[in-house]
Amino acid sequence: MTRLTEDMIDGIPGTAWKRNESLRQAVGMDLKTLAFRAIGEDPDYFDLSHYVTASVPITAGLGVIGGFSQSVSAILESMGFRSFVTSNTDIDGVYEALEKEADILFTADDVRYIAYNRRTGAYSDNSFATAAGYAEALDGAAGGLGGKEVLVVGAGLVGTEAVRILTSKGATVSVTDVIPGKAEKLASEYGASAITSIEDSISSHKYILNASPGFIPGRLIAKGAVISSPGVPFSFDAEGVAKAQAVIHDPLDIGTAVMAAECVVSRKKVGRT
Prior knowledge:
With 273 residues, this protein is α/β, with parallel strands linked by helices.
């Protein structure tokens, strides 16, 4: 995963419920509803209060990101889970989570952020979950994507999953990347179109999923654009935000929520191999 910094997630524990309501206003769904719909499940079927989650801090690599585990726990609580952060770190933290009979463990190092249901063996990684969540958010904010032209900016891990998911939703998908060859390869795999000029592609699309950390100046944003943007840091200036109908963005919430949903639902039910 892209390594977050403490300032990117500052304030999440104290604002998770408020952020959930803001998401509802932007896309017509709260976090729990979005997460389960992103994997094709009925959110009303699942009572999350039956599940205990544990967030385990990891000291490996560049070390613990201040507030990360606390932010994950707050996000999960806002969905309805019972959640705690382990007092211990690394393997000792995993042991603590198991001793306290947590159902789902969340943990991240500099490379990967995962969730694991120790009772069922279901697991999820953040790349797929982020793409699925932000594609669902874009679908909700757009009132459905079937037959609409959608641009994916970035052909990395999240962008690749996003192209596949958006295509499956019936969108007409184009993809662009700073490395044109990556966009062309990805487009050919999923029947999408590759666009060489990033600037031209952004200015000509109303519906955008931005899976790139690159800054997008407001002059490129079409008035009334709907942008779903998981990339960190935040990629837009005041002009771009003012011109857009909606810019859906958070550094952690949506991806974490879909990871949790995947671990509640058997992995066999999720629409991927």
